Amino acid sequence: MGKVILDVRELSTKYVTRFGESVYAVDRVSLKVEEGKSLGIAGESGCGKSTLALSLMGYYFAPLHYISGDIIIDGVNISKMHPDEVRRKILGKEIAYIPQAAMNALNPTLKIINFIEDVIHAHDPKVPKKQIYEMARQRFEELGLPAEVLQKYPVELSGGMKQRTVIATSVILSPKVLIADEPSSALDVTSQKMVIKMLRDMMERGLVKAMIFITHELPLLYNVTDDIMVMYAGQIVEQGTAQQVVFDPLHPYSKGLMGSIIVPESGVRDVKLTAIPGAPPNLKRPPQGCRFADRCKYVQAECRVQSIYMREAANNRAYRCIYPEEQLRKVYENEG
């Protein structure tokens, strides 16, 4: 096992509505990402992926609130830090975040270089503009972006170029961990390919030491990440290598998720598509037992009443289910 850059232990966060109700969006999530590795997080819309991404930053503001757990980046626990300290010392330097629709984060009234100046001056207002320009030019050229982009306004750039500009800006301070939340959504196929290549290049060049890639598209994760975690209703329900989770899912939700999407890979593409019936539970009042129970065709009475924990499986895998691995596989075999 290599050096662990990001170590998250039992992290729980919630939203508090204006009516004082709590929505438990991230529930006791644990994960580790090694240096030089990328982790994919998959799940349907509303499962808590983006909330987890925000939570991993260690920077909380209403309506998102920290409950418990630890976020350790390269040996430093940031979960108990004051928000101002996190903003100045951690964000952008230790961990960076590319949000959904990141291209809309650019200020339309500022040239790209001025936007980058604002980003860097938020950490250190004493950095000279000339030094910032050289930093930006070098980073953009390393990532295949022409230096003249720095002198343009966002309106002068295509959607794909805007997205790549935001990504390049997010790693301007060489963060150890990069979190990319749906970075290729809302882009055409060609632009998606360029964005994915850019993210791979950043890892290969060592511009970031580890990456978390969030999407609802499992096949995309298979081609981008080393490992995959599947999230459902605020909890991690399965974790394993990309190969394992895509081609040999263990958890009933992971299996249903793979059965409901088109996968071009040989051996999977000919399988008939199926839908997962029902809807996720209300996270204002999470169920006592398995959160997938109401949608699972393998549900047992005890699934609804007892807490379900992550269960170790062969080949360093884990999944959240009442069934032991051998029994679960027999259920799948009998069904097939």
Automatic annotation (TrEMBL):
Any matching Pfam family? oligo_HPY
PROSITE patterns the UniProt entry points to: ABC_TRANSPORTER_2
Name a single GO biological process: peptide transport
Which SMART domains does its entry note? AAA
Q: Which Gene3D superfamilies match?
A: P-loop containing nucleotide triphosphate hydrolases
What GO molecular functions are on record for this protein? ATP binding; ATP hydrolysis activity
Keyword set, alphabetical order: ATP-binding, Nucleotide-binding, Transport
The UniProt record lists the keyword ATP-binding: yes
Which InterPro entries did the record assign?
Answer: AAA+_ATPase, ABC_transporter-like_ATP-bd, Oligopep_ABC_C, P-loop_NTPase
The ABC transporter domain, residue ranges: 11-258
- PANTHER family documented for this protein: MALTOSE ABC TRANSPORTER, ATP-BINDING PROTEIN (PTHR43067:SF3), OLIGOPEPTIDE/DIPEPTIDE ABC TRANSPORTER, ATPASE SUBUNIT (PTHR43067)
- Name this polypeptide is given: ABC transporter ATP-binding protein
Q: Which organism is it from?
A: Anaerolinea thermophila (strain DSM 14523 / JCM 11388 / NBRC 100420 / UNI-1)
